[in-house]
Amino acid sequence: MKTLLLLSLVCSLLVSPRSISADTVLMADSKKVSVVEYLYADVSDANSILATINSGLLSTYQGKDRAAWQQFYRKKRSKLAKELERLPTSGLSGGDSRAIAAMRKQMKAFTGGGALFSPVAKCQDAARKDIAYPALKSALVACFVEIGNSLSFEDGKINRVSALDLLHETSDPGRRKAVFFAFLPLWQAINGNNEPDSPYRRMIAGAAAEAARNGSEIDNAARDVGLDPAEVERWLVQILDVWRVSSGDAMIEPWDFRFQAGEADRLLGTYIPRESLLPINQRYYRDLGADLEEMGTFYDLYPRPEKAALAYTEFVTHGRMVNGVWRPTVARVSAPYERGGLFVLNELVHENGHVVNITAIRNRPAFVDWPSDLFDEAFADVPSWSIYEPVWQRRYLGHEAPEQLSLRALYSVVVLDVAWSLFELRMFRAPLTDPNALWTEITSRYLHIVSHPELSWWAMRVQLADLPGYMVNYGLGAILTAEMRQHISEALGAFDAGDSRWYGWLSEQLLRYGSERDTRTLMQNFLGRPVSLQALLKQIHRLKPITLQSTGDTDSAGHAIFLSPGYPAGFSQPSSQRPQSAWHGYLWWDLPTRQ
Ligand SMILES: [Zn+2]
């Protein structure tokens, strides 16, 4: 095993990141398929260029404005639909048949540049009992936009992102509780008074019925890991149970959970002003062998009124062969960053994990696409988890938080995602379940959060309405992230402070296939065995529980919190005495398209 691993490593190091491996089939076997495939590439590019223009980032691309691209898209798309129909159904190679299936599937997702994350529906429609599942879903997403972007707090309005920021930063417990309750109108819009026919409860029944017909995100994720859905539930529970045991017994109010976990963010925020986010990110990826500037990646990182209120990454154009030379993928990152901070930086590094994932694809046009939701989210965290390691912080920030505080900041987010994954899995299985009772049961048992079944405070993630079942890609994704990080460290050595071989090696080993390989096969080949839980559990076990007296930041004594023995006394000053610039942006929603 070890020899094989070393051999493959040596071989891959002989190949430069930009070169194309001999065994990657970049062309169709049939000439007819090849022609259609390059037509597909044109349509696919026009689709993503239109989305780029509609995002407000650019008004023209390659000398054409929106109207010109729309015309180009419509014409080529209808030609593509006809040509795909005309292709022979037999006598094709396996690769060509799979490519045709992939094109048909991916084409269904083309919107012709429809604005991402800006639903045309209205939140008030969520109260209507006569609308069908898709319309109800859109109405709930609209509630996140209409109400979530305008929460009343003190004398003004804040958006959900700022409210979540404040939950991390506000040292006054009463004020923190008031921030939490600013979400109430959103929770009510999503789940009414939790009556059996509340908007969410009607929506999840529709989602479960739809999943019974066509499968769910949870089924997809289970298949991608190689588990049956019942095993997925056992894995999620196991992760939560490790957290339950290692995080002590003291109960904490839901409005205090993020604050208690956010100490590392508060310590390091001062060293990460908004202007430093991109330079730090670029430097880290350069050290990993990926020059994002050279790749021509577009960044659109500041808020605009009409802009999507979340971070995401998308293709601008898809890589392909042009006259025998590989023309690389160009990606863009969109985010509404009002401030810097550790969590925002983590998110930006995650987004750029998506960028390097898609720029590394070297395949025929049909497969130059995202591998799978589960893989995409998991891989993006491979580089981003490093920023919670002291060695990374030392190199890129010049300062470090105690390891235990950083790990707590990271894994508290991971276990919340796991909790939401379990919540959705159980709602799908039994859609008549009372969601407030279920969320209370999960969070009180595993996260030691005080029961508040009267509140629908689970309704903070827009994915719950937009893509029911999607949360599992984060919950289970963490298992894959930990596996990949462990395997890379074994093969290449630690990469938390950079390793110039990283991008080239991963391109070769994992990323070049695009959507051609299913995630289960990809991971099995990469690891040399099926995915297991152990790498993630080992990481969570790095947390050492220490029970301390109350810090004065909460209103009950004896909370168990994670602290390193070397926790410096000076760091225990109340947050209110720290500079305002230490506030960090906490972007809670991380949506597809790759988020
Ligand atoms: Zn993402």
What this model shows, in words?
With 595 residues, this protein is mainly alpha-helical. It contains 25 helices and eleven strands. The strands form five sheets. A three-stranded mixed beta sheet has the order 5-9-6. A two-stranded antiparallel ribbon has the order 1-2. A two-stranded antiparallel sheet has the order 3-4. Helix 6 (160-169) packs across helix 12 and helix 14 (277-287) crosses helix 15. The radius of gyration is 24 Å and the shape is globular. Residues 1-23 and 548-594 have low confidence and may be disordered. The chain binds zinc ion. Zinc ion is lined by residues 350, 354, 377, 380, 590, 594-595.
Average pLDDT confidence is 85
- What hetero molecules are in the model? zinc ion
Number of helices: 25
Strands of the widest sheet, in order across it, are 5-9-6
- Using only C-alpha atoms, the radius of gyration works out to 24 Å
Strand share of the residues?
A: 5-15%
The description of the largest β-sheet is: 3 strands, mixed
Percentage of residues assigned to helices: 40-55%
Shape: globular
Uncertain segments: 1-23, 548-594
Q: Total number of β-strand segments? A: 11
Q: Class by helix and strand content? A: mainly alpha
- Give the distance, in angstroms, between the N- and C-terminal Cα atoms: 36 Å
